[in-house]
Design goal:
The protein is α/β, with parallel strands linked by helices and 267 residues long. It has 2 domains: 3-144 and 219-259, Vaccinia Virus protein VP39 (Rossmann fold, 3-Layer(aba) Sandwich); 147-217, N-terminal domain of TfIIb. Helix content is 31%, strand content 34%. It is built from 9 helices and 11 strands. The protein has a 7-stranded mixed β-sheet with strand order 3-2-1-4-5-11-10, sandwiched between helices. A 4-stranded antiparallel β-sheet has the order 6-7-8-9. Helix 1 (3-15) crosses helix 4 (65-76). The radius of gyration is 19 Å and the shape is globular. The termini are far apart.
Length: 267
């Protein structure tokens, strides 16, 4: 067991709580699509469980054994009926084969940004396409750092350590403070972040400290549009939103809906 990954997974739900209104968006999309859902980057089940609670079957795939352990622990606290709707699988989104196809595939919470090269992005999109039924939809969101990019000096030099949040540790009940640093590499479109956590006992003593690196690759709007078309997807009407209320894209959040077409597929 990787203790470092276990520490990160233990505070994931309390700190990384998603983007505003994203849970309801993905649940509604799953209901509208019907059938069994494939979720890529299911993590600790933040989106998985609400979809199962809505009465739908879902397969959750994640590369982190620690995250999946926490998801299974949360599943044990639900009903037999909900547990029967969920299957959790360890796997890499670039290369996996579940020997079945799905009508919707979702990639919530910017998980697509963990693909750090265009080659990885293409590999994942092609693998996902093979898991989509004809006319099945791929739904995912990413983020492009428009404000940081507007200030090239700030982007290059990065953000020095800044306080970000305070929350309660879900396992110990102790108070936890979190800081972060961030730097953009404009040439490679890489966001390098590091999160710092300090856990305090009730008398204010430091009970534990740990760090969590997070490296992501951002992509621009037309870059993603081109990648989707290159990999044999069709952008659906209203295929790009700027928020989870389905507002227009205006920079920053990108919420994409693309489909595997039923005809004229590339060979």
């Amino acid at each position: 067991m990787d203790d470092y990954d276990e520490l990160k997974a233990s505070v994931y739900d309390a700190y990384f709580d998603g983007v505003a209104d994203d849970t309801a968006f993905y649940v509604n999309e799953a209901i509208a699509s019907g059938g069994t859902i494939l979720e890529i980057g299911c993590g600790t089940g933040r989106i998985t469980l609400p979809i199962a609670e809505a009465g739908l079957r879902i397969v959750g795939l994640d590369a982190s054994p620690a995250m999946l352990r926490h998801a299974r622990t949360k599943l044990l606290q639900t009903t037999d009926e909900i547990r029967d709707r969920v299957r959790l699988v360890e796997g890499d989104m670039r290369h996996f084969d579940l020997h079945r196809r799905f009508k919707p595939i979702i990639i919530p919470y910017r998980t697509f940004m963990h693909l750090l090269t265009p080659q990885d992005q293409v590999s994942a999109l092609m693998t996902l396409r093979e898991h989509l039924k004809p006319n099945g939809r791929l739904i995912f969101n990413i983020y492009d750092p428009m404000r940081e990019l507007a200030n090239a000096e700030h982007a290059t030099s990065g953000v020095e350590r800044q306080f970000d949040a305070e929350f309660t540790h879900p396992l110990t009940g102790n108070r936890v403070k979190a800081w972060y640093t961030r730097r953009l590499d404009i040439m490679s479109q890489i966001i390098e972040q590091r999160f710092y956590f300090e856990e305090y006992t009730s008398d204010g003593a430091v009970a534990s400290q740990f760090e969590s690196p997070l490296t992501l690759r951002y992509s621009h709007r037309f870059e993603i549009h081109y990648l989707l078309e290159l990999c044999g997807y069709e952008i659906t009407p209203h295929g790009l939103y700027g928020d989870f209320d389905r507002g227009p894209y205006a920079g920053a959040e990108q919420i994409w809906i693309a489909a595997r077409p039923t005809i004229n597929e590339p060979r």
